[in-house]
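Format notes (please read before filing issues)

Several people have asked whether sequences and structure tokens are stored in separate files. They are not. Every record keeps both together, in the order shown below: the sequence lines, then the token lines. Line labels are part of the format and must not be stripped during preprocessing.
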Amino acid sequence: MNKNKLPFLKDNIHTILHGSKAEKEKLIGKSFYLAETPEYMKEKGLKGDFFSIKYGVISRHLGKDSDHNLSEKNWKELCKVIIKPFAISKYGKDFRLFTTVKLNNNYIVVGVNVKSIGKWIEVNSICTVFGYFQKNKGVEEIVYRDKKITPEQTALLDGLNSLSLPSVQGST
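Then the structure lines:
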């Protein structure tokens, strides 16, 4: 996949969320460019030059939980905050990026699950609020933690796997 051939998510999210059935059908199976992969992430093992997301990942998230539906603005914001997570965990060969977006005047945690595929990193699911699945509890390793982490974010990570927190925090 060549990032130069991928449409930008920010330019297509309105159609994905609000387009007609015919417009949405044209997007089925397409991947969208999100952002370049920062060097510090590559050093942590996230191999790939950029992040992408498939239409199906976004459509699966829609309507899952009306209290946590991401708006068009949230999806556009995700294109920016995906490269500035407050923590990154590794489970198996895959990673989870923990970031936040503002939803209904409150900040919520968004867990972005990604896998490296050759020259790019594909987002394969989005989780709001908790940011992790219980089935992975105890097997995820925190490989990056921002220095400016809030007490709430720390509590989330402590619940994830408190034994894996690094003694030295990273910074972006």
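For reference, the curators noted about this record: The longest helix spans residues 151-161. Residues 3-85+94-130 form one domain.
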